[in-house]
Amino acid sequence: MNSPAKYRFAFFCLLYSVYCLLVFSCGSPESESEKKFFRYNESGEITSLDPASAKRTENIWAVNQMFNGLVQLDDNLQVAPCIAKRWEISDSGKVYTFHIRTDVYFHDHSLFPEGKGRKVVAQDFVLSLFRLMDMDEEQSAKYLFSNVARDDRSDNLGFIAPDDSTFVIYLSEPFPPFLNILTMQYCSVIPNEIVQHYGPDFRTNPVGTGPFMYKAWEEGVRLVLVKNENYFERASVPAESGKDGENKLPYLDGVTINFIKDKQNAFIDFEKGDADMLSGADMVNIDLIIDKEGKLKSEYEGKFKMQTGSYLKTDYLGFLVDVDSAIVKKSPLRIKEVRQAIGYAIDREKIVKHLRNSIGSAAIQGFVPKGMPSFDPSLEGFTYDPEKSRALLSKAGFPGGKGMDEITLNITEQYMDLSQFIEHELEEIGIPVKIYLNRPIVQIELIANAKVNFFRKSWVADYADAENFFACFYSNNFSPKGPNYTHFWNKEFDKLFEQSLQEPNDTKRFELYKQMDKILIAEAPMVPLFYDQVFRLVSNNISEFSLNPMNLLNLKKVKKK
What's this model's pTM, rounded to 2 decimal places? Predict the structure, then answer.
């Protein structure tokens, strides 16, 4: 650590210590050791605490502790009430009317009268959601709200608040997954007057309605949140307890997030009891902790808990297939059979067992991951079949790989082991491969701007509907405007996708999804590798810590001994 950084860290630690001393001692009989702070490490970078920037998991997790929206997902991926206590959808599927709770308040802040958080009203949602649509830099949010009807009914906003407890959204076309979109952290309610005061600095001065409130943040060092004593949600008391009523949330006194990038150092902190959770199979050295069957090694049994479960995330190899692109025209990857050959050349079972210690499952059904309500286990995707790969190469005009130019797989360092395995598998059937390492931010920019034609990527669900995955291949969503990074265009796929947007019946819509997945397998703009799993190491003194397939961090019901 260089000298200035060392002094900044020391100064922050001093401030944090003083804060803890004041909060935990003044006016309270409890000592610091008796306070229950949930501590976790974030090896990535939190770039903003503004919900409008909740694109990355790191940001989303932090935002989710401080903000609420109209609706939320429960652990079974069902849309549940939040600030909206109930809602109606018109017969046309184009008008959503929400009835707002009257007991929700923003966090206390000096900019509010007398420093007390004011009540949330429907107009706050009008301003919060319109802000998303009006922010040029927030392309992801704008894309999600492209179906909002900005017409005379709402003064061209798309939203109205007839009174303080009623909020209405107008859509231009019916869109069955729309409620799921509203569960995203983007759609959190914010106090407009405070956003106007801080401007861009709202990212470091967040004020929401959530179970925890912002207290302090030294970027890259530590983020501290404290309990919101005025939080509106309650937890039902279990019947077996013999007690009536509800419990006030949250149970924890706060949340502390540290930013240790080194895997081994983060695990040492966790072992020492300085952290309550480590998350992500890629964020720990799994070979040291679990065996090839995905079980905790004997030396760690009883020391902490391991949680695993479905995760709506697919890791894949992507191909730029835009026939107008110069890098596509001169690449053998322009040929569908070559891409298919790559799909059948990779042993996904080995990837999951030997490189991921059985965390996840082989992606042999298609692009939509396990855990998604529409996932179809009967779908036949890419399986390991080297002979079929060789036959496809011959059909493409490259028997045994003869005459085929070398292809370059663009990756980041985190996936070097996986990429080297893929390189070996492809070379076994005659496909010459070169691995090219990019810094993460460079990799993102290259893919978004169609500058590479072979890359490793993953897609994590923004909401719990497979439409979110198929949108990655809809021709109107070419990157950088949208998430179609392969620039795939297929007339039949587009027709099915547009039809699915109009279909309210889940069974019929899921059948359309299956047909789209079949087209993706046949045309191979991507090759799925594995469906990920949520993976957590959790301290034994933590309870009521549930998993969900969105891998959303929910701490409001967590208890700590």
Answer: 0.85
